[in-house]
Amino acid sequence: METLAPASICRHVRLRTPTTRSTEFVDITDRLAALIDEARLRLGFINIQTRHTTTAVVVNEHEPLLLDDFRDLLERAAPFTRSYRHDDPARRRVNVTPGERVNGHAHCRALLLPAAVCLNVEAGRIQLGRWQRVFFVELDGPQDRELSILLAGEARP
Questions:
Q1: Rounded to whole angstroms, how far apart are CA atoms 84 and 86?
Q2: In b/e form, how buried is each residue of 33-70, taking b as 16+ CB within 10 angstroms?
Q3: Predicted confidence pLDDT, tens digits, the chain (157 residues)
Q4: Which residues contact 138 (CB under 8 A, 6 or more apart)?
Q5: Measured distance CA(135)–CA(27) in Å, rounded
Q6: Could you tell me where the beta strands, DSSP code E, fall in 35-143?
Q7: What's the CATH code of the domain at 68?
Q8: Does 55 reside within a domain?
Q9: Euclidean distance between CA atoms 150 and 6, whole angstroms
């Protein structure tokens, strides 16, 4: 008797993620789970990548006081009130756009965080630990943002 190979999936999705604060941790875990379910992905991975240089994607715990601690840590690492060469129009000559935001602090903060995460999917679920959640991190908001998401693997029958 011949065994059929499982159907494979490779799907790309752009996920719009508007933000409301200058520094914000947006929990996107449930939205990702819905994409996995919609794609019928049983076994494989989901890769989540930001399309912006002043944002990030991280996995951590969703606890309000901890999220405040993360914001405080980022502020200490790259304070908004500090002077950044990137923000000096008299000195900067590259990649300058009219009406550009003062965001040197956000670029420096983004350097400390990953632009993408790749997570395993098994039995149709992201393999996160008990407290783990996936966050889109805004560092220069509020703005309308977009994530590039790739799902790949075996489909449910």
A1: 5
A2: bebbeebebbebbbebebebebbbbebeeeeeeebeeb
A3: 666 677 999 999 999 999 999 999 999 999 999 999 999 999 999 999 999 999 999 999 999 999 999 999 999 999 999 999 999 988 988 888 888 899 999 999 999 999 999 999 999 999 999 999 999 999 999 999 999 999 999 999 8
A4: 19, 21, 22, 23, 24, 25, 26, 54, 55, 145
A5: 5
A6: 41-50, 55-61, 116-122, 125-126, 132-138
A7: 2.60.120.460
A8: yes
A9: 19
Instruction: Provide the residue type at 155 as one letter.
Output: A
Backbone angles phi, psi at 153, to 5 degrees: 145, -155
- pTM, full prediction: 0.94
What the block records as the tokens of 28 is: 């996107």
- Name the residue type at position 144: D
- Look at residue 97 and tell me if it is in a domain: no
**Domain range enclosing 126:** 17-79+103-155
The residue type of 4 is L
Residue 152 in contact with residue 45, Cβ under 8 Å? yes
Gap between the Cα atoms of 46 and 116, Å rounded: 10
